[in-house]
Structures are given as structure tokens and as C-alpha cells.
Design brief:
Two copies of one chain form a homodimer. By secondary structure, the first copy, chain A, is of the alpha/beta class. Chain A has two domains: 182 residues, Class I glutamine amidotransferase (GATase) domain (Rossmann fold); 34 residues, no CATH class. Helices cover 37% and strands 19% of the residues of chain A. A seven-stranded mixed sheet of chain A has the order 5-2-1-6-7-11-10, sandwiched between helices. In chain A, strands 3-4 form a two-stranded antiparallel ribbon. Chain A has a two-stranded parallel ribbon with strand order 8-9. In chain A, helix 1 links the parallel strand 1 and strand 2. In chain A, helix 1 runs parallel beside helix 6 and helix 2 packs parallel to helix 4. The N and C termini of chain A lie far apart (41 Å). Chains A and B meet through helix 1, strand 2, strand 4, helix 6 and helix 7 of A and helix 1, strand 2, strand 4, helix 6 and helix 7 of B.
Chain lengths: 218, 218
């Protein structure tokens, strides 16, 4: 069982590391981090710098494929980045193809979401709809082999659900206990339907500003 | 405001990246990842390979200091690794010194937990007690300037709580919403008091086996 997490410069760290932490606890799965080229690749803060050991070409037949998000995915999806080609080429052979956060836009650009319900970060529903998907306000949306998760931290829930589906509930529970995932956020403000209205507006406007910055005034 | 996350070969990825993801959303904080030397440093799976840009010496006066865990911390704590010296030297000047998971053993070895309530991964309570701490089964334990979090994923809760304390509730809620931290684990099995007994035993025995492996039959 090979589980590939596809990366790109500007990915959001927790989107990828949440699933990574879950999948690497599996006793008989090979997790591989890959990108369009080997060598250094930084996250969206430019602070987390990874050394990538495997190219997409080397990882052409994963059983499970996962892509994280990041503001930059809007551009990668639009321009047809190598990660979009990789998703398109690998998807027919996967057991599951999944995204976290705005990684859903990459699945969309690869043509996987046309006519499907799907989710993404709540700030990107409109963008998601451009790929023919019906944005759905759920934590994890499962439609056949294509699974999408909500923003950033939702990758942990997606990965545990994928493990339960593939390896059974006991293995998923053991991993949940191993990473002591008994979440106790200090506030109940993690979704736009739950957070105070002014907080929702604050985050929405900051997200729009950051998006404009990353997309360079397009 | 400088927030330092101190790393070491063999750290557990999500322990560090959970807080990293929260802190890097702060508009006016400088997050820095540091280690005993610059260059490549791998996590406990050997798959996530980081390029470290800053040494502990360069980061000698952080405002907030956070250390992750990993099986290897048992050895680092016992042998007095450079990260223990760094914690000991920097702690008098910090606003908060914090740990995630078995990072608590590093605080313990630095002499910070003697006589204090503290927490760590639930498999390491006994080890924690060796440093004079009273192991406490809570998600985040706050005792003055010394904060400790439970296993792996608890670092997200710790970081949001620290942000609320330092920057106020609104900023913490905005970050929670930004990373869409509205957790919905597929099972309620994230703590030993909640998981089925046979799952608890499975994880405990695997943890002991992994610990023995990492510590090399000592």
C-alpha cells in the first residue's frame, strides 16, 4: 500500500502533516512525499523548508493520493501546474484520491470534481464551483473514490476516516489514540456557522487580501 | 514577539507543525524553527526532512519557546542533549515555555517541572514523574509560565490557548476559524479513558516496543 502526499511550493503545512501523521502510523503502508522536482520546497510561510526525495514521475501509481491546499492552488489549478497533471494521470489507478483544504481546486482542475459534491476551505467555495463541483459544508465529503476535506486541520479527520475505510475501525482508533486526538479547542469558533460574525468577516477579508498578495494583483 | 520551536532529529512532525500552523497566522509574531545545528534534520519517520536555518545559539531569547516530543526525547532528556541546555538557558527570559507530547521530558530534564503538575503523552506519565512532575490527565496544563500539552495533536489546543492568553480571544478565534479547526474525529477514541480497553493495550504495547527500538535495547 503506497500513500502519496503530493506537494508544491506554497503548500499549507498542517494540510499535509495532519494526514502524514496519521498515515505514517500504519504498520504496512509506505508513505511518500513527492513534488515536481527533488530538492528544497518551502511552505506558504517560507519558514518550513523540506528536502523532497521523490518526483511525481517516480510516484506514478499510488494506492492513495492526497494533496494539501494553500493560497497558491488557485493559480496552480488555473495554470495547469505539474501537480494537476500528476493527479489526472494517477487518479484512474488509485483506490482513493483525496484533498485537504484548497487542494480540492487541484482535483477540480484535473477534472475529478465535475458534477460531484465536494468541500474545501470555507473561503474557497465559489472558486470550487468553477470546476463543476457542488460546494458542501461538511468536514469530509466522500463521493466514491474522491474524498475532499474542509480547511487545514480537517485533513486529520479525513485521514482517520480513510484509514477506517481501508484498514477497519480498530486500526483507526489505535492511531487516534496514539496521536491522542481528543480535541479540546478553547473556543467553538472553528466553522463560519459557529464563530462570531465579526470574526468571520475578519478572516474572510484577510483571506481575500492574502489571496490577492499570493496571486500578485491578478 | 519571537516564537521559537526547538527541534531535534527524531521529533514527531505533528507535535511541532500543529503549533507552527497556529503561530504563523499571528500578524506580528516571528516564528523560528531552530535546532542544535543548521542543515538537514529528519523526523521520527525519517521521511519528513527539514532544512534548518537557525541554531539554538542564534535564538537565545525567544518570548515563547515550544518543544515537540518524539520517542527519542527519553534519551535526549536522560543524556542532556543540547536542546535541554537551550531550554534551561532560555527559560528565565521567556514569557511562556511550553511542550507538546513527550517534549515535556525535555522541560523536565531542564529542571522546569520539579514540583509542578504537568502532562505529556499518556504512555509517558511514569517517565515524566522521574523529573519531579505530577502527571496530570488534562489536555493542556498551565502552571505559571510553564505549559505542557498531551500527546501529538494536543499542540493545536495548546497553541490556540497560548494565543488567547497573549493576544486575546478574538485573535485566537480568528486563527481557529482560519485553520477551520472544528474537529470531528470519526471515533471518540482519542484518550485512554475513552478508547476500548483492547485498543489501549494495543497502543501501549506498540509504544513500548517502539520506545525500546528507538532507545536501542537499553
Amino acid at each position: 500500500m503506497q500513500i502519496a502526499i503530493g506537494l508544491f511550493p506554497g503548500f499549507t503545512a498542517l494540510d499535509a502533516i495532519g494526514p502524514y501523521q496519521v498515515f505514517t502510523q500504519l504498520p504496512d503502508a509506505a508513505v511518500v512525499l513527492c513534488a515536481s522536482k527533488k530538492g528544497e520546497l518551502a511552505d506558504d510561510n517560507g519558514l518550513l523548508r523540506l528536502n523532497i526525495a521523490h518526483t511525481f514521475e517516480e510516484v506514478d501509481a499510488p494506492d492513495i493520493l492526497v494533496v494539501p491546499g494553500g493560497f497558491i492552488t488557485r493559480r496552480l489549478a488555473r495554470d495547469g501546474d505539474p501537480i494537476v497533471d500528476w493527479v489526472r494521470a494517477a487518479h484512474p489507478g488509485t483506490t482513493f484520491t483525496a484533498s485537504v483544504c484548497t487542494g480540492a481546486l487541484l482535483l477540480g482542475a484535473a477534472g475529478l470534481l465535475d458534477g460531484l459534491d465536494a468541500t474545501t476551505h470555507w473561503c474557497a467555495y465559489e472558486e470550487l464551483a468553477r470546476y463543476g463541483a457542488t460546494p458542501t459544508e461538511e468536514r469530509v465529503v466522500r463521493r466514491g473514490r474522491v474524498w475532499t476535506a474542509a480547511g487545514v486541520s480537517a485533513g486529520i479527520d479525513l485521514a482517520l476516516t480513510l484509514v477506517a475505510e481501508t484498514y477497519g475501525d480498530a486500526i483507526a482508533q489505535a492511531i487516534q489514540l496514539g496521536i491522542e486526538y481528543d480535541p479540546q479547542p478553547p473556543f467553538d469558533a472553528g466553522a463560519p456557522s459557529k464563530a462570531p460574525a465579526e470574526i468571520v468577516e475578519l478572516v474572510r477579508s484577510r483571506s481575500a487580501a492574502r489571496e490577492a498578495e499570493v496571486l500578485g494583483g491578478e
